[in-house]
Design a protein that fits this description.
Layout: H1 3-9, H2 20-29, E1 38-40, E2 43-47, E3 52-55, H3 63-68, H4 73-81, H5 103-111, H6 115-128, E4 137-140, H7 144-152, E5 156-158, H8 162-167, H9 171-177, H10 190-200, E6 212-217, H11 225-235
Antiparallel strand pairs: 1-2, 2-3, 4-6, 5-6
Length: 246
């Protein structure tokens, strides 16, 4: 254990860590949301709601530390990562947190897109849910250029659970995907059709049919699907009530 780090952390009395308010922050520190984005030279960078926080064993840029001047959850998590304090609860980590974007990061992209593309995107955010809970989706694409904009801007990516996605389609829709195959070779039952498509077509290519697409939200924004839906809705407050804003 690094004695220099222990000395820095020792400015906080041991009894302080047993106080109720501090125990609450220790529990918060174990969350995957409190995974440091970066650790460098005993300094941690943590993701905040509107900006990143630079954290050391003696201070932090977050509001909680600014108001209380006692260790916040970021400081406890840093101390744990550096081995100078042991968090009693199981500590969860999020390996993707360093790549996750905030709303402010994605706003310029949203503002560069036309209304119809944004409304379509909002609808997909609503149905996919946070962290792609309901995804991936497979739907019929009426305007491929519009869909391609979302792919090009890395808002949507090809989904990976192809079997589950294809299972959402109707038999007629599955047969439409097989139109390049001889009619006599195309199965009639839905489970067999799904397997036939998987075995005979490159469904890993989101553009494989130019009719139906399997997709989900990109990893960088999947955590804020409902927030994106709400934000786009706020951009068009006078939009007629329609299926985009359910």
């Amino acid at each position: 254990m690094n004695n220099e780090l222990l000395e820095l952390w020792s400015i906080w009395e041991t009894s302080l860590h047993n106080e109720e308010e501090q125990i609450k922050r220790q529990k918060s520190a174990t969350s995957s949301k409190c995974t440091p984005k970066k650790l460098d030279d005993n300094v941690g960078v943590f993701k905040g709601s509107s900006k990143d926080y630079i954290t050391t064993l003696t201070d932090c840029q977050c509001r909680d530390y600014a108001l209380r001047r006692f260790p916040c959850k970021h400081m406890y998590r840093l101390a744990h990562e550096l081995g100078v304090f042991v968090l009693n609860s199981t500590v969860s980590s999020n390996e993707n947190i360093s790549s996750e974007l905030r709303m402010d990061d994605i706003l310029p992209t949203l503002e560069s897109l036309d209304k119809e593309t944004l409304l379509f995107f909002a609808y997909q955010c609503y149905h996919l849910g946070n962290d792609n809970k309901n995804g991936p989706l497979t739907i019929k694409i009426d305007d491929w250029d519009l869909f391609q904009k979302l792919l090009d801007n890395k808002l949507l990516v090809g989904g990976k659970d192809y079997k589950a996605s294809l299972s959402h389609l109707k038999v007629a829709e599955l047969k439409e995907l097989c139109k390049a195959s001889p009619t006599k070779d195309i199965p009639k039952k839905k489970p067999d059709l799904v397997e036939y498509v998987l075995n005979n077509y490159d469904v890993t290519d989101v553009n494989f049919s130019k009719i139906y697409a399997t997709f989900e939200l990109s990893p960088e924004i999947k955590h804020m699907a409902f927030s994106l839906h709400k934000r786009i809705h706020s951009m068009y407050p006078n939009c007629e009530a329609n299926s985009y804003f359910l």
